[in-house]
UniProtKB/TrEMBL annotation:
Domain Luciferase-like: 8-293
A GO molecular-function annotation: oxidoreductase activity, acting on paired donors, with incorporation or reduction of molecular oxygen
TM stretches of this protein: none
Keywords: Oxidoreductase
SUPFAM superfamilies assigned to the protein according to its UniProt record, in alphabetical order: Bacterial luciferase-like
Organism the protein comes from: Paracoccus thiocyanatus
Any single Pfam family the record assigns to this protein: Bac_luciferase
Domain of life of the source: Bacteria
Name of the protein in its database record: LLM class F420-dependent oxidoreductase
Length: 330
């Protein structure tokens, strides 16, 4: 059975409110959590973007959940040395509970730091070099580097007994296959079943069957279908943009302009929209059947408390009692 977790969206909620929500999710039966790590929201209507690493310390102290955080060690917003130190500190305090999900980033979060915005090929090279640096630092090595990321006799002094798992963020089979060379696991998002299977298969072809796959599931649940559709369009219509486009836009205003004419039909392949909890349960069962170890549910509306309560009472028990789901470790 896949582990069902809760996605904490910093873009939509103030950090204090999000802390309450992740606690409610744990009490409702969600067994894991995922945190975004943004400098800015995707659109002006979302309106928030707290600093994830500060929040993670509080959230991991307030709950007993395992956490994943998506971040970008390409040397613009975060130097790999800083990511390694932050991850090591959390892993030392909360052993075995942290997965760091590494990707090549978006201009929205990186470009404001004034160091330019490299093309995709360079970002990939920066990511892979950064991954090697983080791995070496977490192994206790002293690192000097003259590549994209400059280091001089750098090392970490507060190391966990167990290094945090380094996952790869991937949206395409090509990225997933390449990440199989280094990643301890894959993190991706819900997409049409054939595309999702292709991404997972590409990763496992390169990495082997033993490494876990986590899927962030964007969904919109509400008491009525009209409200679920309205929430999806108002809060998460930017999800309809291709990843290659979304990576290049550098402000919430640009995202709003790029999606101003989009409606619910444009979100059909990227947000699961229904007022029926059992329908959501069916969709999640289908994803779990692909051999996914963890599903992180992101209800894209602001109605988080109703979502957590309803899914805790109706959807999680449905999945946990379903003998058709593949058993998998957390």
């Amino acid at each position: 059975m896949a582990v069902i977790g809760y996605h904490a969206s910093h873009e939509q909620f103030a950090p204090s409110e999000l802390l309450d929500l992740v606690g409610q999710a744990e009490a409702a039966g969600f067994a894991a959590a995922m945190s975004s790590d943004h400098l800015a929201p995707w659109g002006e209507r979302q309106g928030q973007s707290g600093f994830a690493w500060s929040w993670l310390g509080a959230a991991m102290q307030a709950t007993r959940l395992p956490f994943g955080v998506v971040t970008t060690p390409i040397g613009l917003r975060y130097h790999p040395l800083l990511v390694a130190q932050a991850a090591a500190t959390l892993a030392q305090m909360y052993p075995g509970r942290l997965a760091v999900i590494l990707g090549s980033g978006e201009a929205l979060n990186e470009r404001p730091f004034g160091a330019g915005w490299p093309g995709k090929q360079e970002r990939t090279a920066r990511l892979e070099e950064g991954v090697g640096i983080i791995q070496a630092l977490l192994d206790g090595q002293e690192v000097t580097s003259s590549g994209f990321h400059k280091l001089e006799a750098a090392r970490l002094y507060s190391l966990p007994d167990q290094a945090p798992a380094l996952f790869a963020a991937a949206l395409t089979p090509e990225t997933a296959r390449r990440a199989g060379a280094w990643a301890a696991g894959l993190a991706t998002i819900n997409m049409p079943r054939d595309r999702l299977r292709a991404v997972i298969d590409a990763f496992r072809d390169a990495a082997g069957e033993a490494r876990p796959v986590h899927v962030q599931v964007h969904l919109s649940y509400a008491a009525s279908q009209a409200e679920a559709e309205r929430n999806a369009v108002e809060q998460w219509r930017t999800n309809a943009l291709p990843g290659s486009v979304a990576a290049e836009l550098c402000s919430p205003a640009m995202f709003d302009a790029a999606t101003r004419h989009m409606g619910v039909k444009d979100l059909a392949s990227s947000v699961l929209i229904s007022s029926d909890p059992s329908r959501h349960g069916e969709w999640l069962h289908q994803m779990a059947a692909l051999g996914v170890e963890r599903l992180l549910l992101h209800n894209v509306g602001r109605n988080q408390r109703a979502f957590i309560d309803t899914f805790g009472r109706q959807v999680l028990p449905q999945l946990q009692s379903d003998p058709g789901q593949a058993a998998a470790p957390a």
